[in-house]
Write a structure and sequence with these properties.
The chain is α/β, with parallel strands linked by helices. The radius of gyration is 19 Å and the shape is elongated. The termini are far apart. Strands 5-4-3-8-11-13-14 form a seven-stranded parallel sheet, with helices on both faces. The protein has a three-stranded antiparallel sheet with strand order 9-10-12, with helices on one face. It has two domains: 56 residues, Orthogonal Bundle (Arc Repressor Mutant, subunit A), CATH 1.10.10; 193 residues, Rossmann fold (3-Layer(aba) Sandwich). Helices cover 39% and strands 23% of the residues. The protein contains eleven helices and 14 strands. The longest helix has 16 residues.
């Protein structure tokens, strides 16, 4: 028969797989143990590979290999289109916006409305290709080291250029979102860049279709320190959304069904 400690750790893993773990104190209260005991549980489960640690808690890892941008474009297309359509509608005339890399952000670029004197800055090669012929936009490329899988620039040169600019709105892509507000990427260069992008921006939106919520495909995490908005689709798990929402984080739900019918 499993011991009380083993049963507690199994339940921790199950909860991480369902919705992520955001708060050590909440877990301590749930199991009627000390916070130090929970931290030891999380450390052991992390060392054994059963959990991936995030900034504020833990999440269930996966062994999924990173796919190319072209492969990702086919995943959840209707959900991504709905998210992109909502995001594009937020952009106003004369704003300066920053577009991250990723398939959903590329769909947003396709749907940007014709507006007066909008400046678009990006490190994404597909976004540059989509917008290069738009006479109504001012297009700025951040440059840097080209990361082939994401088809985007990263690294010190990208960061140096970014530090010279500020933005009205930032639209970020991600590979995973945890309930504690951390966002997952394949490499540390990507997480560092996203954090810097957020610091330079007044309004921050993370575009993530519902299959990415509560997922940890990789082990690199970014933390957005200021208030931000998660834009996802109505297939999102209600338990995840309940745990995710906070004074610092809002949620917008879009309809993938509506996108498919358009």
């Amino acid at each position: 028969m499993a011991s009380k400690t083993e049963r507690r750790r199994e339940e921790i893993v199950a909860r991480a797989a369902a919705m992520g773990l955001a708060n050590v104190d909440d877990l301590a209260a749930r199991f009627d143990v000390t916070a130090s005991t929970i931290r030891r549980d999380l450390a052991l489960l992390s060392r054994s590979g059963r959990l991936a640690r995030t900034y504020g808690g833990a999440i269930a890892p996966s062994d999924r290999a990173e796919t190319s941008l072209l492969q990702r474009e086919r995943e959840g297309f209707d959900a991504k289109s709905a998210i992109a359509r909502w995001a594009a509608a937020q952009v106003q005339a004369k704003e300066s916006i920053l577009l991250d890399a990723g398939s959903t952000v590329a769909l947003l670029a396709r749907q940007l409305p014709t507006l007066d004197a909008v400046t678009v800055t990006t490190a994404s090669v597909p976004v540059i290709s989509l917008l290069r012929s738009r006479p109504d936009l001012n297009l700025v490329s951040l440059g840097g080291r080209l990361r082939e899988l994401s088809d985007a620039f990263v690294g010190p040169l990208t960061e140096q250029n970014l530090e010279r600019l500020t933005f009205d709105r930032l639209f970020l892509g991600t590979d995973g979102v945890s309930t504690d507000g951390a966002i997952c990427e394949a490499e540390l260069d990507q997480t560092r860049l996203k954090e810097l992008m957020a610091r330079q921006s007044r309004h921050v939106y993370v575009l993530a279709h519902s299959a990415k919520l509560g997922r940890a495909p990789f082990h690199s995490w970014a933390r957005i320190e200021q208030p931000w908005t998660l834009v996802t689709d109505d297939g999102a798990d209600p338990d995840f959304l309940k745990a995710f929402r906070s004074d610092e984080r809002e949620v917008v739900l879009t309809s993938a069904v509506d996108a498919a019918q358009q």
